[in-house]
Design brief:
Elements lengths: L5 H14 L7 H10 L21 H10 L11 H14 L2 H13 L4 E4 L15 E4 L6 E7 L10 E7 L10 E7 L5 E6 L8 E11 L4 E2 L5 H17 L10 H10 L6 H28 L7 H24 L24 H7 L10 H12 L20
Parallel strand pairs: 1-4
Antiparallel strand pairs: 2-3, 3-7, 4-5, 5-8, 6-7
Helix pairs in contact: 1-3, 2-5, 4-5, 4-6, 6-9, 7-8, 7-9, 8-9, 9-10, 9-11
Length: 397
């Protein structure tokens, strides 16, 4: 089969636009047609939104569609589906699961959330206690437990879920991975109000939730391996997203510096210069990470990017509040809302400062990610583990 090159992608993209003019085609219809044409994520297999092309060619399609005024799929709103669920389904899903879930996931018709963290198993995710018990007569599963810090659960139709299926095995084994229908009986979503005043996160209670075995991803008991694919992709999607120079958190503080000369001091100038350079280094490192992805799946390097993302966001937002002086102490709106997405740059400095505190927790705590970088990137000795061969049921909790 002839390899797809940039010229061929341009031709196919222009054919899509000609057949479905963005100005007169309903948004969802256009996105569905784009998926069916293999132009959603070109590196995915043919028939699943891609063309088996090189990942590096996706910008060719995106540029053509932007020039034509084509609608996007609002990746910030469906980031969990795009960045975590989709690559996991692609890697471990059955043919039927891929065909059922990937198209509405990419078009945004179905929002996804992630049921991983638990009140008693946050940083130590493998210690999770949510149970999935199999009905031997039907093969299906009944799930009971509690999840926490679940972004978009109040919007989601589907969730990626890990649960313990064999408590007699050590904690990293005996876990299985499922797709959970958030509209099923027994799924209760409660808002979890944050320091920003909003409830972007949620608690999710699972009581007798029935999950067909057809919605299991990967073999029974191999859920930790499947979850690693999700987690590595999550860290890349959080820390390695493509942004322009002065994109992200450094942008607003740099603009304030240029537009408000009366706020400037020598000390703040020196710190701003340092953080600007570090933000640019992180941005370029993210570009290099995406180029590495062309050759394979994300590795532990994404943990380093997510670490840098969290630290920089917190330091930059703190500098911005300090630069603004009294204005930086103001907070515009404490209204309790359940937003559809996180908008760092479209809000005020107070919001950025408060919301960035969560960056070192979500997507893996910075402490855990430091261990991953030390052990799996730098090759340093692993931390001693006394629970490696102990059955989960025998662990102290």
């Amino acid at each position: 089969m002839t390899a797809i090159d940039a010229a061929e992608l341009r031709r196919r993209t222009r054919e899509l636009v000609a057949a479905h003019p963005p100005a007169t085609t309903e948004r969802t219809d256009f996105l569905r047609a784009r998926f069916d044409a293999g132009l959603s994520w070109v590196h995915y297999p043919a028939g699943l939104g891609g063309l088996d092309a090189s990942r590096s060619l996706q910008p060719v399609v995106d540029a053509e569609l932007t020039a034509a005024g084509a609608p996007g799929n609002d990746p910030r709103r469906i980031g969990i589906g795009l960045g975590m669920a989709a690559p996991t389904i692609l890697g471990f899903g059955t043919t039927e699961q891929k065909q059922r879930f990937l198209r509405p996931l990419w078009t945004g018709e179905e929002v996804w959330c992630q049921l991983f963290s638990e009140p008693g198993a946050g940083s130590d995710l493998a210690a999770l206690g949510t149970r999935a018990v199999r009905d031997e007569s039907t093969g299906d599963w009944t799930v009971d437990g509690q999840k926490v810090w679940t972004s978009s659960a109040h919007l989601a139709r589907w969730a990626i879920l890990i649960a313990r299926t064999d408590p007699d095995l050590p904690k990293h084994r005996g876990i299985s991975y499922f797709i959970c229908d958030m509209t099923d009986p027994g799924v209760e979503v409660r808002p979890l109000r944050q320091i920003t005043g909003e409830a972007e996160f949620n608690e999710v209670f699972l009581t007798g939730v029935r999950i067909p075995d057809s919605r299991r991803l990967g073999p029974v008991g191999d859920g930790w391996k499947v979850a690693q694919t999700t987690l590595m992709n999550e860290r890349v999607s959080i820390g390695g997203s493509r942004i322009p120079r002065e994109g992200g958190m450094i942008g607003p503080v740099a603009r304030t510096w240029r537009e408000r000369p009366e706020l400037r001091t020598h000390d703040v100038h020196q710190r701003l210069l340092t953080l600007w350079v570090e933000a640019e280094v992180a941005r370029l490192a993210g570009e290099r990470l995406r180029q590495q992805l062309v050759a394979g799946q994300p590795g532990p390097e994404g943990s380093g990017m997510k670490l840098a993302f969290a630290r920089l966001n917190q330091e930059i937002s703190g500098l911005e509040v300090e630069l603004l002086g009294d204005e930086g102490l103001l907070y515009s709106d404490w209204t309790m809302r359940r937003p559809e997405l996180v908008d760092f740059t479209g809000r005020d400095a107070g919001y950025r400062y408060l919301r960035s505190k969560g960056n070192s927790i979500e997507g893996g705590t910075s402490e855990v990610l430091l261990n991953i970088v030390a052990e799996r990137v730098l090759g340093l000795p692993a931390e001693p583990r006394t629970d490696k061969d102990v059955a989960w049921k025998d662990l102290s909790r």
